[in-house]
Amino acid sequence: MRIQSLFVLFNVAIIAWSYPYEPLRVLQVGENEVMEVPESEKLNLRRRGVKFFDVTKHTSFLPFFNKEEEPTVPTYNYPPEISNKEVVDDSIKNIDKGSMHKNLAKFTSFYTRYYKSDHGFESAEWLAATIANITKDIPQDTLTIEHFDHKEWKQYSIIVRVTGSTTPEDIIIIGSHQDSINLLLPSIMAAPGADDNGSGTVTNMEALRLYTENFLKRGFRPNNTVEFHFYSAEEGGLLGSLDVFTAYAKQKKHVRAMLQQDMTGYVSDPEDEHVGIVTDYTTPALTDFIKLIINSYLSIPYRDTQCGYACSDHGSATRNGFPGSFVIESEFKKTNKYIHSTMDTLDRLSLAHMAEHTKIVLGVIIELGSWSAW
Ligand SMILES: *[C@@H]1O[C@H](CO)[C@@H](O)[C@H](O)[C@H]1NC(C)=O
Ligand SMILES: *[C@@H]1O[C@H](CO)[C@@H](O)[C@H](O)[C@H]1NC(C)=O
């Protein structure tokens, strides 16, 4: 008895010594693959290129994780053709690369936007204030800005909500993540995160600015609710978007479409400029609709590409039963090699390419804003 409890004590001491202050995290690294690791091991995995959902907060029954628990994503009949060409073209015309440059310069001037750092909180504060300024003339019964507090870390997610006029319960979401990371030493080294993923955030900010200027201010209002999400902590295992979509699923919200923008600015070969539309772990019917938008409104083509499991925040939508899609700067193999380092800087990006991504966002929210899900 005595020996046994000594033995237990010894083991506890060993574990405590090995992982001081490090509670285990539960990671889902594949559809049927779950592992438990200390916090510091998450970084090692990322450095080796492994992507995952950190589901620690959202699973109580592990390690007996059951895939059947994941809801299936319903298929909706998205519009087979576009019907708002004039309005969309009118907005696209006004895309301002100068404004995008200014926002990205400011956003990348934070030493890092690592979600656990004070800098990461400050960058969220700047983003929230800038969004409030962009949308300040829209009355509160139409537009609200929510600071989604994650409790475990300081950098909050931001949800901009344009409430629909006739079917506000049907929700269309545009997402991007605001955090950046230096995978070498995240708490110490710089991570300007221009492409990854400041570019997605700035692409969506510009779309929000034009949506405000050319649409809402002219008295238009979408039938469905349109939301812009700026997620915290993507780099920690999609933590921010998992919190948001898990809450939406619990509240039984009806998300009819989600489009993620993440890495929108790098062009490896200007002679062969295109966007990459991600076909794995996304929702086929929605992906087809996004292709229609690209064909209708962009001056460059798309190419199908694959990005792997838990690639970006759209994965948090689909694993909660909501349709998700993802358009990235190019075919995956041609994407920016400088991400997650001090070299992910603004001078390596193309604002014209980011503007093409902004067109996708405007096309999607204006077309789906007036679409009837039934
Ligand atoms: C708010 O936006 C206007 C342009 O619409 C700009 O001139 C002004 O500097 C902005 N203010 C802040 C605090 O960002
Ligand atoms: C969309 O809203 C407008 C008014 O804002 C209304 O006239 C129209 O019937 C609505 N469309 C649908 C499909 O509900």
Mean pLDDT: 86
Count of DSSP H/I helices: 10
The percent range for strand residues is 15-25%
The CATH homologous superfamily of the largest domain is named: Zn peptidases
Strand count: 11
GO molecular function: aminopeptidase activity; metal ion binding; metalloexopeptidase activity
Family: Belongs to the peptidase M28 family. M28E subfamily.
GO cellular component, one term: fungal-type vacuole
Binding site for Zn(2+) 2: 196, 235, 340
Characteristic key phrases:
374 residues; Aminopeptidase; 2 domains; eight-stranded mixed β-sheet; disordered N terminus; binds 2-acetamido-2-deoxy-beta-D-glucopyranose; metalloexopeptidase activity; aminopeptidase activity; metal ion binding; Peptidase_M28; Probable aminopeptidase YDR415C
Briefly summarize what is shown.
This protein has 374 residues and is α/β, with parallel strands linked by helices. It is built from 10 helices and 11 strands. It folds into 2 domains: 20-70, no CATH class; 85-369, Zn peptidases (Aminopeptidase).
Provide an overview of this structure.
With 374 residues, this protein is an alpha/beta fold. It has two domains: 20-70, no CATH class; 85-369, Zn peptidases (Aminopeptidase), CATH 3.40.630.10. It is 36% helix and 18% strand. The chain is built from ten helices and eleven strands. The chain has helices at 2-18, 39-47, 85-92, 97-107, 118-134, 194-214, 239-250, 284-297, 314-318, 351-369, and strands at residues 24-30, 33-38, 53-54, 143-148, 157-162, 167-177, 224-231, 254-261, 275-278, 302-305, 324-328. Strands 4-5-7-6-8-11-9-10 form an eight-stranded mixed sheet, sandwiched between helices. The protein has a three-stranded antiparallel sheet with strand order 2-1-3. α3 runs antiparallel to α10 (351-369), α4 (97-107) crosses α6 (194-214) and α6 (194-214) crosses α10. The longest helix has 21 residues, at 194-214. It is globular and about 55 Å long. Mean pLDDT is 86; it is low at 1-16. The structure holds 2-acetamido-2-deoxy-beta-D-glucopyranose (NAG) (2 copies).
